Amino acid sequence: MAPVTSITANVHQRLTDALTAALPETVGDPLLRRSDRADFQANGILALAKKTKANPRELAAQVVERITSGDLLKEIEVSGPGFLNITVTDRAIIETLAARAADGDRLGVPLKEKPGVTVIDYAQPNVAKEMHVGHLRSAVIGDALRGMLDFTGERTIGRHHIGDWGTQFGMLIQYLIEHPGELAPADEVDGEQAMSSLNRVYKAARAVFDADEEFKERARKRVVALQSGDQETLDLWQRFVDESKVYFYSVFEKLDMEIRDDEIVGESAYNDGMPETARLLEESGVAVRSEGALVVFFDDIKGKDDQPVPLIVQKADGGFGYAASDLTAIRNRVQDLNATSLLYVVDVRQSLHFKMVFETARRAGWLSDEVTAHNMGYGTVLGADGKPFKTREGETVRLQDLLDEAVQRAAEVVREKARDLTEDEIQERAAQVGIGAVKYADLSTSPNRDYKFDLDQMVSLNGNTSVYLQYAYARIQSILRKAEGASPIAHPELELAPAERALGLHLDSFGELLAEATAEYAPHKLAAYLYQLASLYTSFYDQCPVLKAQTPQQVENRLFLCDLTARTLHQGMALLGIRTPARL
C-alpha cells in the first residue's frame, strides 16, 4: 500500500500553491504549527510579506482567495497581523486515519527514499566483569534507535565493542594456567553461575597479582604471549570470553533485548589491523611522531597549559590504545560493512575522545560527507537524591539486581490492579511492566542529560511513565473485547467532538514525528509523542462514551479511534523496545 500523506502535509501543499499564485515570483513555503485547539496556523506569511515588502494581512487575504478547500479545509480566517487560522474538516481527519488503519503495522508511515547502512555501536560490557548500572543507557538507547531506524527502512548492523583485550587478561590467564579447573566450561553454567565463577577467578587473580611480584612478572609475559598469538594463551582467553557471553546474554534477555553473537565484535577483533592503521596515518601525514609516540594534533583542542592535546595512536613503547582500536573499527565498518552512517552510543564523558577520532578519520579519508559518524553521548544515571547511583555501601549497583528489583516492584503494582490474572500471568506482566518502566524512564529523558533512577516514580500509574502508557493500551483492549459484536469502522460522515479531533490529528502525526525523532537520533521525542497520545486518549475516553455512544455508527467510529490508538501505541512502544500487554 502507498504511504499516507498526512493532513499537515496536505494543508502545507494547499498553502504553498496559494502563496505561489499570490506571489508568482516567489515560491511560498509557509511554516505550519499545530495550535492548542488542534487546528493549524501558518506564520510563514509574515516572513514572506517582510521579504516581498507586502502588507501581511493583504497577503493573507490573497492566499484565502486562492486556496482550494474541497473536503480538506473547513474554515480559513485571517487573524492578527496576518496569521491564517485553518480548521480542517472532520471528514478529512477520519478518511486519512482510515487510510492509515488499512496499512497494517506501518500505519501509512513511508520508508526512507534513500535508506543507507547504519552501524550502531552500543551495549559494550567488559569480559570477566559484572555489568552495572553504567551499562544500562548504552544498551537501552542503542536498542531503541536501532528499532526506529529499522522501521524507516535503514539497514542497521549492531556492533558490541566489548572490552576483551588488554593487560588484565595476562593476569587472568596466568592465574588459570596455575590453577586449572577454576573456570567451568561455558556450556555447563547459566548466567548467574558464569558471573560467580568469573568474579571468583578475578578476585583470586588480583589478590595474587598484588601480593606476588614473580606472579606479576609472569602475568606481564602472558600479555605478550596473548598479543603475539600464542595458541595456549588464546584458548584460555577464549574461555573467559565464552563464559562472559553466557552472563551477558542472561542480562540482555532480562532487559528483553536480542543480542546476536555475530555482532559481538570486541577490541580483540581489531588487533591485527592496528599496525596497518598506524602506517596509513603516518604515511599520509595525518599522524606524526612526537617523543617516540605516533600522535595526531588538533588546533582547537588544548589542555590547561594551553598546549595541544594529541590523540595517541601508538605509544612510544609500540603498544596501541583505544584510539588505534576505534580508528581500525571505523576502517572496518566503512570499507568492509559499507556503512553510510556510524552511530556510537557512548558515555558523554568520552565525547572529546570521539571528536578527535572522527576528525582523524575524516583527515584520513575514511569519513566524508557521504559517510558520517555521530557520537550519541549519554548522561549519568543518578539516584533519587540526585547523586551518582550507588549502593548503601558506596559500590556501583549491579545491573541484574536493579532489573530484579524493578520487576519485583512492578509485580506489586500489577497484583494490586489485577482482577482476572493468575499468579503466573502476574509474574509475566510484572517483567514486561518493570523492564518497560526502566527503559521508558531512560528513553523519555534527552540522552545527553543525566536522569534520576527512582523506581517509585517509574512504576507509577500516573504521570509520564511506561506504566501509564501500558494501562492505556490495556484499557483500549478491554473496551474492544466488550464491544459485543460492534466493530471498529471509520465513519467520515460523522461530526467529531473536540476530544475526537485532537486525538485524530495526533494519530495522524505519528509518521512525521517518527521521521523527525529518527533523523535527530532522539528517542525521547517518540516517548513524548506516545505520552501525549495516551493523555489525549484519556481525555477522549472521559469526554466521549464509546460503547454507550448515541448511535451505532458513532460507536463504530469511536471504536475505530480506540483501535488505531492502540495500534499506534503498540507500534511506538515496540520501536522503543517496550512490551504492551493486552491485559493488566
From TrEMBL:
Residues in Arginyl tRNA synthetase N-terminal domain copies: 9-88
Q: What is its EC number?
A: 6.1.1.19
Q: Where in the cell is it found?
A: Cytoplasm
Indicate the segments forming the DALR anticodon binding domain, all copies.
469-584
Q: Tell me what reaction this enzyme catalyses.
A: tRNA(Arg) + L-arginine + ATP = L-arginyl-tRNA(Arg) + AMP + diphosphate
Q: What is its main location?
A: cytoplasm
Q: Could you give a GO molecular-function term held by this entry? A: arginine-tRNA ligase activity
Q: Where can the motif 'HIGH' region be found? A: 125-135
Look at the named UniProt entry and state the broad enzyme category this protein falls under. ligase
> What Pfam families does the record tag this protein with?
Arg_tRNA_synt_N, DALR_1, tRNA-synt_1d
Q: Which residues form the signal peptide?
A: none
Matching InterPro entries: aa-tRNA-synth_I_CS (IPR001412), Arg-tRNA-ligase (IPR001278), Arg-tRNA-synth_N (IPR005148), Arg-tRNA-synth_N_sf (IPR036695), ArgRS_core (IPR035684), DALR_anticod-bd (IPR008909), Rossmann-like_a/b/a_fold (IPR014729), tRNAsynth_Ia_anticodon-bd (IPR009080)
Keyword set, alphabetical order: Aminoacyl-tRNA synthetase, ATP-binding, Cytoplasm, Ligase, Nucleotide-binding, Protein biosynthesis
Q: How does it assemble?
A: Monomer.
User: Could you say which protein family the record assigns here?
Assistant: Belongs to the class-I aminoacyl-tRNA synthetase family.
Q: What is this protein called?
A: Arginine--tRNA ligase
Q: What does the record give as the organism's lineage?
A: Bacteria, Bacillati, Actinomycetota, Actinomycetes, Kitasatosporales
